[in-house]
Write a structure and sequence with these properties.
Length: 312
């Protein structure tokens, strides 16, 4: 463990992306008279740890916001039409929405790297190993516990490391800290269950099932892309890659990644891979479909996390 943590010391986490709100400020009445997560002039409460001051975090904890949401994104090629940081950009929006819906949670900074492998042919991926991710999740979780959080929820936007790394870390740390009344959980519904059910929706509506950089990814990025910089919309009309077979269970990864639906194994009669990084067909993507998959991810996560906390 010590060796692994030393290996990740040089990882630099990016600044907040466009979906983050500007921080609110405390009025002249001071911290004691403020709410735990201030909402000034109609703004949303502060729920993003990186946009809060330490007095605001301390007040939030004292007010009962003791659930930390640890969400992972990822940096990988997403076809010619989507930016490489898509998992992290979507992750920041998703975890913030989950925290707002729960009302008792704070979203920790989204980790921008997850298990994957770089490629010179498709130069958009920077990945970790599962061992490094495990070490990072363990360290981040224990740091949130030291900070004062009583529940830590692990979840992610990318298939690498799911479910084993997340589930194993959650089980190990929950067993360690449960005697102190502190719990660690792995929320898989935000990724596996939501994606699987969205695939069923596509099938029911005669749309192609897509894996990496297909309809779900492209549509969600279109929906969340308020700056019009995440998706090269002029390229969506030609964003088609290798067809994906139905029934993959909602796991998504880039071509060749062990998390990719179907494992990247194709028969002799399968269509030729165009080599553009897309698994599936992104051409039917729309912001409306993006809203649907985004809402499903948030709804499924909130329901599962509430079940965790209710069951204590």
């Amino acid at each position: 463990m010590r060796h692994l943590l030393g290996s990740v010391a040089a990882i630099v986490f990016p600044a907040a992306v466009a979906v983050s709100q500007a921080p609110t400020t405390l009025g002249a009445v001071g911290l004691a008279a403020s709410s735990a997560t201030p909402a000034i002039q109609g703004r949303q409460p502060l729920v993003e740890f990186e946009l809060m001051t330490w007095p605001e975090v301390k007040a939030a904890l004292a007010a009962g916001k003791t659930t930390a949401l640890v969400y992972t994104g990822g940096t990988e090629q997403r076809g010619p039409q989507n930016v490489n940081g898509g998992h992290t950009l979507m992750g920041k929006a998703t975890v913030k929405a989950i925290a707002l819906r729960l009302g008792n949670a704070i979203a920790m900074p989204v980790l921008p790297y997850t298990p994957n492998n770089a490629s010179a042919a498709l130069p958009g991926t920077i990945g970790l190993t599962p061992e490094l991710l495990s070490a990072l999740l363990e360290r981040i979780t224990e740091q949130t516990i030291v900070t004062g959080f009583k529940n830590v929820i692990l979840m992610g936007d990318h298939g690498g490391g799911q479910p084993n790394v997340y589930a194993d870390v959650a089980k190990k740390l929950d067993e360690k800290y449960a005697p102190q009344g502190i719990h660690v959980y792995y929320c898989n519904d935000v990724y596996t269950t939501a994606n699987g059910d969205f695939d069923k929706y596509l099938q029911e509506n005669n749309m192609p099932v897509s894996s990496h950089a297909g309809i779900p990814d492209t549509s969600e990025m279109m929906y969340l892309d308020s700056t019009n910089t995440w998706v090269r919309r002029e390229l969506v009309a030609t964003a088609v890659g290798t067809p994906v077979a139905r029934g993959g269970g909602g796991r998504r990864g880039q071509p060749g990644d062990s998390a990719a639906r179907g494992g990247g194994v194709r028969g002799a009669g399968a269509p030729r891979d165009p080599g553009n990084g897309i698994s599936g067909d992104a051409r039917p993507s729309t912001a409306a479909l993006g809203k649907k998959i985004f809402d499903m991810k948030v709804d499924y996560a909130v329901r599962q996390i509430q079940g965790f906390l209710k069951g204590q």
